[in-house]
Write a structure and sequence with these properties.
With 116 residues, this protein is mainly alpha-helical. The chain has one domain. It is 47% helix and 11% strand. The protein is built from 4 helices and 2 strands; from the N terminus they run H-E-E-H-H-H. Strands 1-2 form a two-stranded antiparallel sheet. A hairpin with a 2-residue loop joins strand 1 and strand 2. Helix 1 crosses helix 3 and helix 1 runs antiparallel to helix 4. The longest helix has 30 residues.
């Protein structure tokens, strides 16, 4: 009697599907955080993307040098007192990430369920 061990193939498919789930979450974070990012002047919203670091590891990146200043609402010396565009402000990326994290379990279960 011969036993076929399909576990390595199943594991590879599972990792791929979970990676796609994390990619979907990263895209959702990027899109929603772009809508909340300050934008009176400059390309802060458009100069951003998602980056695949490794299996199930994605980053949302803003490339402008002032993105960190806007996200934190200032630095050690200055504070942003008023964001000129309504609906935007401090923590546009972190707040969005925390919000999307709430649906992460559902999204990852859906993607894991596609593994056969």
């Amino acid at each position: 009697m011969r036993i076929n061990n399909n576990l390595p193939q199943f594991q590879a498919k599972l990792y791929l599907n979970l990676d796609m789930g994390f990619r979907e979450l990263a895209k959702d974070i990027l899109i929603e955080s772009q809508n909340k990012a300050p934008f009176k002047r400059g390309p802060l919203r458009t100069d951003s993307d998602i980056n695949h670091v490794g299996i199930a590891h994605w980053q949302v990146r803003y490339h402008k040098e002032y993105a960190r200043y806007q996200e934190a609402g200032g630095d050690g010396n200055r504070v942003v007192r008023k964001y000129s565009t309504s609906g935007t402000g401090k923590g546009f990326l972190a707040d969005t990430g925390n919000k999307i994290f709430g649906k992460a379990i559902i999204t990852l279960k859906q993607h894991a369920g596609r593994t056969r």
